[in-house]
Design goal:
The chain has 218 residues and is an alpha/beta fold. It has one domain: P-loop containing nucleotide triphosphate hydrolases (Rossmann fold). 50% of the residues lie in helices and 19% in strands. The protein is built from eight helices and seven strands, in the order βββαβαααβαβααβα. Strands 4-5-3-6-7 form a five-stranded parallel beta sheet. Strands 1-2 form a two-stranded antiparallel ribbon. Helix 1 crosses helix 8, helix 4 runs parallel beside helix 5 and helix 6 crosses helix 7. It starts with a strand and ends in a 5-residue tail after the last helix. The protein binds BIS(adenosine)-5'-tetraphosphate. BIS(adenosine)-5'-tetraphosphate binds next to helix 1, helix 2, helix 3, helix 6 and helix 8.
Length: 218
């Protein structure tokens, strides 16, 4: 069993993360929540702290859009309207990534995936073939008004079409309530979901998330 030490801003070691090198069991976490809840923000920090791969389907899709691939051109119309890109496309992207990289990774923080129950079922199957299930689903809890405020604020300089107007943002929240919120129930029945307060200082929220991940650092 190897351990990894991390430094906080005062350069004090605050975390010993033990990774079982003999079994190479992956540490796979889902960061869950509505658009604007801080998934992307927190996933970046956690991935760096724990040396896990940050997999954001939103970022992967935006890269395809930017490169004007066939997949990107198809995805763009869904994204700009605040709708979900079809499951088949997103699951295919994740399957490809795991196929290429799973053997080399300590673990993954999934950000923005899964977003439907069909995606969650597909992810369970994909990970079963690597004998590396999702260990924990950390779900960020933020009020709808705060979400709208954050996304409109980001829209001022993100250049993201889906952050530009309140109608599109409200549609994303409706899609979340209709299609994505049931994913939390899916993981609840597996006893893996944990609600985390997602409002307040970014560092304070990060500390709450770290406390949960601590359970895997025995
Ligand atoms: P994503 O890129 O996942 O977009 P998001 O949900 O808006 O991002 P996120 O929630 O991570 O943003 P964050 O809170 O970090 O998806 C975009 C689109 O891609 C989807 O609508 C869909 O069309 C498509 N897509 C992606 N995945 C898919 C899938 N699996 N299936 C189908 N379609 C898919 O940041 C929000 C803002 O809040 C930032 O400006 C940040 O600075 C700020 N913020 C964060 N924490 C804060 C805090 N504590 N206080 C104040 N502000 C905070």
């Amino acid at each position: 069993m190897g351990s990894h030490k991390f430094l906080n801003q005062d350069n004090r070691i605050f975390w010993n993360f033990k990774f079982n090198k003999s079994t190479k069991k992956m540490i796979n976490i889902v960061l869950f929540g509505p658009p604007g809840s801080g998934k992307g923000t927190q996933a970046k920090i956690l991935a760096e702290k724990y040396e896990l791969k940050h997999v954001s389907t939103g970022d992967l899709l935006r890269a395809e859009v930017g490169a004007e691939t066939v997949l990107g051109l198809e995805a763009k119309k869904y994204m700009d309207a605040g709708n979900l890109v079809p499951d088949k496309v997103v699951i295919g992207m994740i399957a490809g990534l795991l196929e290429r990289e799973a053997g080399t990774l300590k673990g993954v923080i999934f950000d923005g995936f899964p977003r439907t129950v069909a995606q969650a079922e597909a992810l369970d199957e994909l990970l079963a073939s690597h004998n590396a299930p999702i260990l924990k689903v950390l779900s960020l809890d933020v009020s709808e008004e705060e979400l709208v405020k954050r996304l409109l604020e980001r829209g001022k300089d993100s250049g993201r079409a889906d952050d530009q107007n309140e109608g599109t943002i409200r549609n994303r929240l409706k899609v979340y309530n209709d299609s994505t919120a049931p994913v939390a129930d899916f993981y609840n029945t597996q006893g893996k979901a944990q609600l985390i307060k997602g409002e307040g200082d970014i560092d304070d929220i990060n500390n709450l998330l770290c406390q949960e991940l601590n359970a895997f650092a025995a």
